[in-house]
């Protein structure tokens, strides 16, 4: 026998997979049959399925900070938020109205998320939404970026409170840094804020308060501590415990 094809598992092409951040072995998958299923990879069995409300391809699938909610974007131009413990839909709102796809990203421990997409006139857009204010159907902030054709992909770093947006640009620029990092006193870059033009900012390239190894050890400790909770799909809300002493040192990076 050369190949053994398992009889269980997804029955259509899988476009997205995502581990639940606060539970071991819990995986979400979004498939071309317009379903989102929850799996236990330790047993290979399907645990549950989100409410089947889709009639088109799912394009984004991120968890919120404590792993209780998942936001989705779809080719039908709607954003939906589900409670993964029950599979029920919590919110459904109209999103970017362009014919191209959209993306979504939760803003870490903040009860907000950001979406990127296109307007009817093919302008690239970036919206910031408040989960508590979704009933209004209006974003807290909206920004028109440019008329380039490429997707904008948002990624949020909760440790530094920085939102990174990547994608094809209308122009390309580069900036050189001093090759000897240890000898550089300051590094200058540019920070873009939604409500204001880009502005230069400087920071110390060497952080004497905490080393790179201590930083990674701290983050790994947080992840291990969260995994020890061993939350299941139907668990109650979990507040992620923080290592306060170390996190005080991490403020030097913000």
Automatic annotation (TrEMBL):
InterPro entries: Coronin (IPR015505), WD40/YVTN_repeat-like_dom_sf (IPR015943), WD40_repeat_CS (IPR019775), WD40_repeat_dom_sf (IPR036322), WD40_rpt (IPR001680). Residues 212-253 form a coiled coil. Keywords: Coiled coil, Repeat, WD repeat. The keyword Repeat applies. WD repeats lie at residues 7-49. One of its GO terms (molecular function) is actin filament binding. It comes from the Eukaryota. The keyword Disulfide bond does not apply. GO terms for biological process: actin filament organization. Gene3D superfamilies: YVTN repeat-like/Quinoprotein amine dehydrogenase. Transmembrane segments: none annotated. Pfam families: WD40. PROSITE patterns: WD_REPEATS_1 (PS00678), WD_REPEATS_2 (PS50082). PANTHER family: CORONIN. This is Coronin-like protein crn1. It comes from Physocladia obscura. The gene is CRN1.
């Amino acid at each position: 026998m050369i190949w053994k094809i398992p009889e269980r598992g997804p029955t259509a092409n899988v476009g997205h997979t995502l581990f639940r951040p606060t539970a071991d072995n819990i995986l979400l998958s979004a498939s071309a049959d317009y379903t989102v299923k929850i799996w236990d990879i330790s047993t290979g069995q399907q645990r549950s399925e989100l409410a089947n409300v889709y009639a088109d391809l799912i394009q984004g699938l991120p968890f919120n900070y404590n792993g209780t909610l998942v936001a989705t974007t779809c080719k039908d131009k709607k954003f939906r938020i589900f409670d993964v413990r029950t599979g029920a839909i919590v919110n459904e709102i109209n999103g970017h109205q362009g014919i191209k796809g959209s993306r979504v990203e939760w803003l870490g421990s903040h009860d907000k998320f950001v979406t990127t997409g296109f307007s009817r006139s093919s302008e690239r857009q970036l919206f910031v939404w408040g989960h508590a204010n979704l009933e209004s159907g209006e974003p807290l902030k909206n920004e028109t970026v440019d008329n380039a054709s490429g997707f904008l992909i948002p990624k949020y770093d909760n440790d530094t409170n920085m939102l990174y947006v990547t994608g094809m640009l209308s122009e390309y620029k580069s900036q050189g840094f001093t090759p000897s990092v240890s000898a550089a006193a300051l590094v200058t870059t540019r920070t873009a804020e939604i409500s204001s033009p880009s502005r230069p900012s400087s920071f110390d390239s060497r952080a004497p308060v905490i080393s790179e190894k201590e930083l990674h050890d701290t983050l790994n400790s947080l992840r291990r501590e969260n995994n020890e909770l061993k939350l299941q799909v139907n668990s109650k809300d979990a507040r992620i415990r923080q290592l306060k002493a170390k996190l005080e040192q991490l403020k030097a990076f913000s």
